[in-house]
Structure prediction request, 127 residues.
Amino acid sequence: MKLRIKGDSLRLRLSQGEMRSLAEQGEVEDRVSFPGGAALRYRLRSDKNNRSISVSYDVNLIDIRVPEALSERWCGTDLVTLSASQPLATGELRIVLEKDWACLAPRDGEDESDNFRHPMADTGKTC
Prediction:
């Protein structure tokens, strides 16, 4: 699972295997480790009690919850992106969840074998 943070925006990209885990176990989690043993965990989970996509942060865990019915629809269809925003005291936090497509042009050091096939893969385009 890839996490992108830019300002008040969070974006997660999930591979095919991570989408299967979300569908079957109801959650997927990853972490970024830092020197000294610290880690930032980020988790996406399906939640039958949530009515909208929401995020919370506590003790080095970014916890994103998606309504169960929406998660099932996302996992079981060709729907690529889910997005929402959550109010902040100074604006809003934007949350974007995406299926991770393989790049059109291979990149050194990138293993994209579990990514979703890019819809323009057979066009000959590279960007």
Remarks:
- The mean pLDDT is 86.
- Residues 16-25 form the longest helix (10 residues).
- Helices lie at 16-25, 68-76.
